[in-house]
Design brief:
By secondary structure, the protein is of the alpha+beta class. It is built from 6 helices and 10 strands.
Length: about 260
């Protein structure tokens, strides 16, 4: 299985945590804490913001209603009020791609009979032409934060998994560093949370550190014990990422993945 692409490199994380010469234990903990933090961010956003190429099929089920999360889209209006995007909805002309931001569309196929063949069937004549038959909603050249794929001629078919889209989405690590500092901040907070939680479970100072209220300390053969309940509150052991990290990312959530 390929390694999960992360927002920041291990070298950057070690520098921030002050681990210039990490022990084998610290390296092993980071090897778990970093992908776990990335997975938590992906789950919260509804997509992986790190650039990759995907092939996806739409819709996942037949659209029995005109208004459906599979062909509908949502946006924020005013003070974070979630409202449906009205344009193109009634005509079923909009698909919302799952990964953001969309960078390039490699190909779009539409075949209502695709799944009569196991694995799908995508002959050459089902390839749709950009411009003539579909267009990607783009405000700034080379990047679409809405992920709206709009059918120029007629509606998208409502047959299950009849549309096949291959596309590249996400930002490179350098683009993230240059344009999305809040994402790096949220990732670092989440990695640090995971790292400290694991150290705490391994055992206080002996594990390399701890957090929370100190309930016991002694100087001879120095040691320290931390309050476990406080630790859980401070580091959100029942949550996948700290609240501050979620606040930093909430404006970039793909709302279409949650309706």
């Amino acid at each position: 299985m390929a390694a999960l692409a992360t927002v920041m490199t291990a070298t950057e994380i070690k520098a921030i945590l002050g681990l210039s010469s990490p022990t084998a234990q610290q390296t092993a903990i980071l090897g778990i804490a970093m992908p776990s933090a990335q997975d938590a961010i992906n789950t919260f956003l509804g997509y992986n913001p790190v650039q990759d190429t995907y092939t996806e099929y739409y819709p996942e089920q037949s659209n029995a209603k005109v208004r459906s999360e599979l062909i509908d889209a949502w946006e924020r209006s005013g003070t974070n009020k979630i409202v449906p995007v009205e344009r193109y909805v009634a005509e079923r002309r909009m698909l919302v791609l799952r990964r953001l931001p969309v960078r390039t569309i490699v190909s779009v196929y539409e075949n209502p009979d695709a799944w009569l063949t196991p694995g799908g069937s995508w002959p050459a004549d089902t390839l749709l032409a950009e411009g003539d038959q579909w267009v990607l909603d783009v405000l700034t050249a080379g990047i679409s934060w809405t992920g709206f794929l709009i059918r120029n001629v007629g509606p998208w078919s409502i047959q299950e998994r009849c549309v096949k889209v291959t596309y590249t989405a996400g930002l490179t690590q350098q683009e993230i560093a240059d344009t999305w500092p809040a994402l790096r901040h949220a990732y670092m907070l989440t990695v640090q949370t995971n790292y400290n939680e694991m150290l705490m479970h391994i055992g206080g100072h002996a594990g390399g550190g701890g957090v929370g209220a100190i309930v016991q300390e002694h100087l001879a053969d120095w040691g320290v014990q931390y309050d476990q309940a406080t630790n859980a509150l401070l580091y959100g052991m029942g949550k996948r990422m700290p609240a501050k990290a979620a606040q930093l990312l909430e404006q970039k959530v793909n709302l279409a993945n949650y309706f």
